[in-house]
Amino acid sequence: MTLVLPELPFAPNALEPHISARTFEFHHGKHHKAYVDNGNKLLEGSDLKGLSMEEIMKKTAGDSAKAGIFNNVAQVWNHAFYWKCMKPGGGGQPSGKIAEKIKADFGGFDKFVEEFKAAGATQFGSGWAWLVLDGGKLKVTKTANAECPLTQGMTPLLTMDVWEHAYYLDYQNRRPDYIATFIDKLVNWDFVNANLG
């Protein structure tokens, strides 16, 4: 397959004032596009070219000889997933199956928020905070750089990008403020419910 830069699922200014159109101009238009372009160059002539992104990620994870391919393909996948995790007027308490599952597996929404905020705030350097399904149970985890829980047999349900390019233009060094805003104002719980199946 050829990697493609997906359209944002909302207008670039739709999440203002929480995330600016200028951030999306760089984050989607430059960073995400660069992963697509670099990934396509690296896959050219490779025996991985015909595979899906998920298959490429699973085959190249942990292989230092294929780190360039993994990093770029995984970042294309992670970002495409991240855009869908947000929506205008999102955030706050979930409803539906995910609300019940959060209550069952975390003991309540506040405990989930506490764990998710901690994962995002304590990820040293660049990376991601995730809500995943692991063996039928919800879990909060974090990954460094381009890593994705998909390659560890987990099902990603929600992610938050904590690379600086995700928030620096709007929040500077205040990562905890970005994290709180993501949870309170941006999470697309409909998408999370759809991922839960």
Report what the structure shows.
The chain is mainly alpha-helical. It has 2 domains: 21-84, Fe,Mn superoxide dismutase (SOD) domain (Helix Hairpins, Orthogonal Bundle), CATH 1.10.287; 97-196, 3-Layer(bab) Sandwich (minor pseudopilin epsh fold), CATH 3.55.40. Helices cover 49% and strands 12% of the residues. It is built from 8 helices and 3 strands; from the N terminus they run H-H-H-H-H-E-E-E-H-H-H. The protein has helices at 21-43, 53-60, 67-84, 97-106, 109-122, 168-171, 175-186, 189-196; strands at residues 127-134, 137-144, 155-161. It has a 3-stranded antiparallel beta sheet, sandwiched between helices. Helix 1 (21-43) packs antiparallel against helix 3 and helix 5 packs antiparallel against helix 7 (175-186). The mean pLDDT is 96. Belongs to the iron/manganese superoxide dismutase family. Residues 5-87 form the Manganese/iron superoxide dismutase N-terminal domain. Residues 94-194 form the Manganese/iron superoxide dismutase C-terminal domain. It catalyses: 2 superoxide + 2 H(+) = H2O2 + O2. Mn(2+) binds at residues 27, 79, 161, 165.
